[in-house]
Structure prediction request, 327 residues.
Amino acid sequence: MKNYRQMAQTLNSCLRVNMWKALFSFLMMSVLESLFMTSFSFFAMLIISSRENSIAVFVISLIFLFVGFVFVMILQYGYQVLLLRMLRNEYVTLGFLFNGFRERKRIAKASALYSLGFILAFIFCQIVVLVLKIRNPDFFTGLSLPELAGRIFAIYMIFVLVLLVPFSFVWVCLADNPNEKVLRCFKKSFVLMKGRCFRFCGFVIYAGGFWLAAAAVIYALSLFLPKNLSGAASFLASIFEFAYFIAAYTAFVRMCMAVPLFYLNVTGSLVEIENAGKLPAPAACLPESISAEVPADAENIEKIATSAETAASAEDADSAENGSEGD
Prediction:
């Protein structure tokens, strides 16, 4: 297996050519995911905010969230297919982002299973929050809404990582094994990630690199900016927001590409990319084809030269014979 630095070189080589395709696809995916999740979360929040506090209300709200997650995961599959093709130097268009909708039955099953992990993480998070409230009532008191949301989100993400990191290769396994059953792809991902989860998470962060660090620094600095700004200060704040947008989205694209790249490294099929994003040259233009044709041409030239020498020798013999007859 290659180390972080070698894999990062391959990632940089690929993104030098494909960065705009990957970034634009990521932006489109983000917009669609936000649209899906906002729509289904809206209905879930309406149900939760109703006066009825029952298990049925909780279950119905979870169903809405579950459907939203399924749509999001279908788009995630398409994006992983697109990135995998980029790494393999294969033809790529924006249409690959919607591959999951073309393979509806199979990918919908995988998306439903994957989304179940998010729902389980949400349930476990609610249980932990409830237990913390019972044991330590002051744990969440006196916090502002962002601080409260941050703590709950941190607890939620811990469960998401524990439950779903072992299945990070599911989408690329599905793309590489179109005839495999969904559960077998989940099992294959689990086997490939066994003993590699921490190394995988480390490489995903490493792939974010400078852009991830820049986004974190800009975000931290933006917390100290006053809310009501005007004039030049407002303009500088806008520049800050734009810089954060560029850094964060570039880091996210690199971290997303780290998933299929690590998969190729684990499976042993990672090849250094020299002409990333270009269509394969015609066979007649490849050096191997040219070198393969040289021996045949040399043999033909040798045959022509031999036949010419034979013909010249025959002519000399005839002329010598005719000369002797004249004498």
Observations:
- Residues 272-299, 320-327 have pLDDT under 50 and may be disordered.
- The chain is about 80% helix and 0% strand.
